[in-house]
Amino acid sequence: MSYDDDVNIPKEKDEDGKLENVMQLFPVHNFAINQRIMPKCMISAILEPNGQERLVMVSASNKVLVKDTEISLHIPDKIRCIDAAPLGTKYDLIIIGTESQVIVFDVYQNTTVFQRDIPDGVNCFAIGILADFKTSLVICGGNCAIWGFDPTGKDVYWTVTGDVVNAMCLCDYDNDGELELIVGSPDFEIRIFKRDLMRTELTETDAVIGLAAVTNNCFAYALSNGTIGVYKGEERLWRIKSKNIATSMLRFPSDNLMTAIWNTGKIDIRQVTTGEVATKDQPQTSLNIVGACLASLTDPNQKAIVIVTGEGKVTGYELRESKELVDRTPEIIREFGQKKHNLMMELSNFEQEDQMTEAEKGKEQRIPINTVVNSLYYVNKDERTLNLVLEASNEVCIRAVVIFAEGMFEGESHIWIPTKIEGNGDKVTIPLIPEKDVQNDLHIKALLGQIDSAKLHVFEMSRLIPQFARFAFMSNTEDWEKPKPYVEFALKQRNQRVSFRGN
C-alpha cells in the first residue's frame, strides 16, 4: 500500500497569537461487524482491479471476512496474522499466517497463489523489496527463524534470530538506498538485518511488540510495558511511557508525523523527531482495540484511521481542519500562572532565609553548604547482587533514597528507607538485582538531613550501570563450586537405537 505525499498540518493565528485554526480528528465511519475479531488480524486491501478498498478481518471462529461482500475464507489452522500486498498483480493478495504455514490467496481469481509450511508457524509479516532483491518478498517471522518467499512462492530468504519474532518492518536504517529488516523480540532486543546478516542490536526495557517505519530512515517501536519511541539509526530520538499498550503505529499523515493507536481507543499524532503531540482524540469510554490501519473506504483521495475493537465495532477518523478557531488564551494564562507560582515560591524561600537569625538557622539543623554525595558499584559475591553504595560528605545522614530505572524495578521505581541508622548514617548500601545484562540509567534522588530534622535536602544524580556490571572475577583461592556441564532431554527412542559420542 502506498502512502500519501507529505502533508503539512497548518496552524493559522490571529495577530495577537491567541487564536489557532488547527487540524483535528473527526469520526467518519461507525459500524459493527457482528463478529469477534482476533488481534493483529485486521487490514485494508484493494482485492480486484480498479476496485474499492475494503476491510479484511479474521473472526474468532477463524474465518477471513471481507467487509461489504459475501466472501469468507475458512482456514483449518488457527490464524495468527494477516497482511495484503500486490505481488505481481495490479491488486492486493491476502497473505495469511497460521500456526504451521503461510498462505497467499487471490480473492479476485478465487485461487491460492502459493502455500508453504513454516515450522512453529508465522507470528508477523513484513512485505517489500529487501536489500538488493528485485521483487517484493513475503517475509515471515516465526520462532527464532525468518523466511522470505518471492511472488511465486519460491523460498529465497532465510535467517535466524535470537528469540521469537514478535514484530517486523522494513526501513532504510542506514540511509544507503536499500531497505533493512528490523526485528523485535520478547528478549527486549531490536535486531537490524542487512540482507541475512545481523548488523546491530538495540536493547530496550521490555518485550518488543510493535515496529513501523515512520520515515525513510526512522522507525517507531512499541513495548509491552506501554513505551513507544522512535529510532534514527542507532540513536533513540525520544520515548514516552503510558499505562496503556500501543496497538498500532502508522506512517500518517506525513513523513514528519506518526500516529499511535492505543488499546483504549486513544489516538495520538506526534512529531517523529521530538514525540510532541500535534493532535489527539480520546474516547469517552475505554475500548478494547485489537487492530488499526489506514483505509480509503469512501473517498479514494482521503485516508482515514480505521480502528476495530475485539467485539467487532469499527470506527474511522479523518484528519480535517477545525471549523472553529481554537482560543488558546486560557491555556496560555494557565502556563504563565504556573510559572508565576513557582517563581513566587522561590522568592518566598529567599526572603525567609534573609529574615532568619543564626540561632533559628541552627535549630533547623542545616547541612554544610559543600556537602556532596558520592556513589560506586560493587558485586556482592555471597548474595549475588550488584550493590549501589552512596556516601555523603561532612557525616550528613542519608535519610532515604529514591531510584528510577526502566526495566529494573516493578513500577520502574524503588524507595529505600533505612530500618535502623548505623553510626552517622552517612553511608548506605542498596542491593540491585538486574534481570538482564543490559546497560541502564539510574536516576537517583538522595534525601539528606540530620536524624531529628524535619527538613530534608534532595541531591539528584544520574549513574550508568554498565552492561556486565553484575559480573565479577573469581580467584582460584576463593571457595566456589565449579559448574558441572550436562545435557538433559526427553528420549523417545529405545536405548538400543541411541549411541553417544562426546569428548
Automatic annotation (TrEMBL):
Keywords: Cell projection, Cilium, Cytoplasm, Cytoskeleton. Residues 73-128 form the Ciliary BBSome complex subunit 2 N-terminal domain. Signal peptide: none annotated. GO terms for biological process: non-motile cilium assembly. Residues 380-468 form the BBS2 GAE domain. Residues 167-270 form the Ciliary BBSome complex subunit 2 middle region domain. It is found in: Cell projection, Cilium; Cytoplasm, Cytoskeleton. The keyword Cytoplasm applies. The keyword Cytoplasm applies. Its main location: other. GO terms for cellular component: BBSome; ciliary basal body; membrane; motile cilium; neuron projection. It comes from the Eukaryota. This is Bardet-Biedl syndrome 2 protein homolog.
